[in-house]
């Protein structure tokens, strides 16, 4: 490919550019392609999936009890009365099965730790597997919400005291959550064309791409992290949030692609802003990688009144195909206050929008408007994540809650961090993880790597000749390795994102060696000049 073609492709979203890189990397049939471009993990949680299957078997037996006399493939909605006793009888025939043991533990846990009825929880779970009812309530099943709330609080709060209760909306993964949030902010006039949206950059590319779309037409304000400070926000950048024209602040924490959690100092400074000059600021925190961090605390905990929390089960539990996510919002929140502060003219517009749902549309909470808007309001009664999905989400949450010794969590952390070490050692450089780093991804600063390996003059030549994107194409063409450009995530310096979640240890060693080989070839070009 010539420089013109590469320059054109460099303007694409990193995930669209990835498809071209995959095409190039896969063009050699005699060579294995190594795709470290996407964050889909190659590990997953098995125990809650075993529980799902065993619960399904029990659910089928329960359904068949209702119409067993027909003997024609009919089943009915299981009876709630006596369901715990019937499950105990079922489990006695599967005492050594890990899935059954998990369910028995869960039934005990929800009563002892969460104060929920064992009978009602098990009945909800059985019917959820069968998918024999509409989602009721449409926002989230009652017991599922309480269990997932406990899990979210455990993972997002750390040792921060809980300040009031919060509600959840179960969504089709974190990406649906992002879509619904921007959509409802717009429909409810909390953001309008020309308003400013601040983004904590570098950031997951869709956050960059949604605000300027026609229909939103929002102005993006960069709140840029400082690489030299382990990807934290400098005071000068956070001060931009004091501008009242900035309506929303979106941040991914831990960051994507730098993969660093916000420090306590960063959290405190943002909290000072929303508790001081910007009590009206809306924060959207995407915390999907929080479960890979040590001692993680979310803005949802530090700035509870101002923050919408997006969490996805995709990465930690290896469940990208399940499409499981939630939006969390505290009951006392700045969004409902902003709705209340709208002009009478605006309120009348929104009265018409939601009047089919309630006789008092102005009392409809923002989180319930999210649900309604997700189904164009008119189909609110059939909104909601499918019940089997909600059940698997609940079982994942229970897995996290009952992992008292952090065996699964520690194993997941060790896995990605060891891959980080392997990658960098095979590039010929010392692996360095700061205290806030989680290593789900790593952002290879190509200029710094070039300087570390061959000196400042070579690094300057590499940058001046725009070799960063060329590096990605050359890597794909010559070695079959696919990485994503940091530029697509609003990274300033020439860089490449590597997912440390989706390949084998041997593969990361190969990527390190191949990357070094291509840089060696560049150095040969430089020395030849």
UniProtKB/TrEMBL annotation:
**Which SUPFAM superfamilies does the protein's record reference?**
PLP-dependent transferases
Residues covered by the Aminotransferase class I/classII large domain: 172-507
Its domain of life?
Bacteria
Q: What is its EC number?
A: 2.6.1.-
InterPro entries, alphabetized: Aminotransferase_I/II_large, Aspartate_4-decarboxylase, AspAT/PAT-like, NHTrfase_class1_PyrdxlP-BS, PyrdxlP-dep_Trfase, PyrdxlP-dep_Trfase_major, PyrdxlP-dep_Trfase_small
Question: Does the keyword Transferase belong to this entry?
Answer: yes
Q: Which cofactor does it need?
A: pyridoxal 5'-phosphate
What keywords does the record list, in alphabetical order?
Answer: Aminotransferase, Lyase, Pyridoxal phosphate, Transferase
An example Gene Ontology molecular-function term: L-aspartate:2-oxoglutarate aminotransferase activity
Reactions it catalyzes? L-aspartate + 2-oxoglutarate = oxaloacetate + L-glutamate
The family assignment reads: Belongs to the class-I pyridoxal-phosphate-dependent aminotransferase family.
PANTHER family in UniProt = ASPARTATE AMINOTRANSFERASE
* Protein name per its UniProtKB record: Aminotransferase
Organism whose genome encodes this protein = Ruegeria sediminis
